[in-house]
Amino acid sequence: MNDMADERRDLLILGGGLVGMTLALAAARKGFSSHVIDRADPAELTAEGFDGRASAISTASWNLLRNIGIAPSLEPQACPIHSIAVTDQLRPGLLDFTPEPHEGTLGRMFANRALRLALFEAARAEPLIAWHSQAEVTGRERGEFGVAAQLGDGRRLAASLMIAAEGRGSPTRENAGITIAKWDYRHRAIIAGIVHEKPHGNVAWEIFYPAGPFALLPMQDDADGRHRSALVWTVSEVDAAGTLKLSDRAFLAELDTRMGDLFGAVEAVGPRSSYPLGFHHTARITADRLALVGDAGHGIHPIAGQGLNLGLRDVGALVEVLDEGARLGLEPGDAQLLARYERWRGLDSFMVALATDGLTRLFGIPGAPASAVRRLGMAGVQRLAPLKRWFMDEARGMAGDLPELLRA
Q1: By CB atoms within 10 Å of each CB, which of 129, 222, 243, 322 scores lowest?
Q2: pTM
């Protein structure tokens, strides 16, 4: 950990979560120094326990984690996703995405705690990162020649470029006056870790009900060999409080109804948490000496599990743009570089957001005719190899103009 707090660095990263800390490490690999400021206590974020909060890391995102040197410590904790099964209310007409053996997995599941531990450990060992945790930002400055953040303890941290990585409610974005389009799905995602009787076979299940998607994501067995999955269950806002308050026994009964006999009996449920679901997208992802990454710029429905992966694509693109600029003698806050980042990431993240929003609406239409149409469409995709390949490339994050750090 570097204590030279007041020295000017290349980057001022506000938010040291999964996206912000990955950015700091990726930038350090290219020789950029950073201040990372975060309100949270790292000890709380890495506390023991299986709470079901987990992330699907696509093939492209895994390449990034490998390229910044943290894959070896993470690999033993990965649960590979060998296939994705999509079904309309467990009715006939299953759509399954299973790559050929030589193509590798569709991604890897990790407990968020494991990702944080690996990132935090690497950040502590990186001299180019000055990490300021449990720090409150009381003021932000962006001027012609640089940026700065004022901290609650009186310190002032200066840099060339400010990066907002604080997530959906980014105060830095608000402070910059960047307009945002958003709508609320009036639904909440209930997250929990579950222990079940039968192995999941490394299959990620997406079961669509009119009230919202019900996802079961494969996790590693625990130390006692018990089979585990992460549950992401979408319920309407009006039902959320009641569902969270159900006794464990009543909650298990609700899960049984929705899971059928997929994994046999559900034997235990970890702590339940929930968060509101909404779509938001900023009109732009840059301003003078400011770049937005991750959920600060685009928040999507978790239906496709792509939120974090989208943020990591932002990381790869921004670092590549800054690195190419440095070779031309441009400093990180240069307007030309930010314009290039805007062009590269603005449209791609919007298209992914639009697609997930469309899926959410399509599967949320109630009634037998809508279900029949969905299953007809799924059967068509199931039979069309090129279309299935396109979906699998999207799931792997390997489609489009990929930043160098996200390539193998």
Answers
A1: 222
A2: 0.89
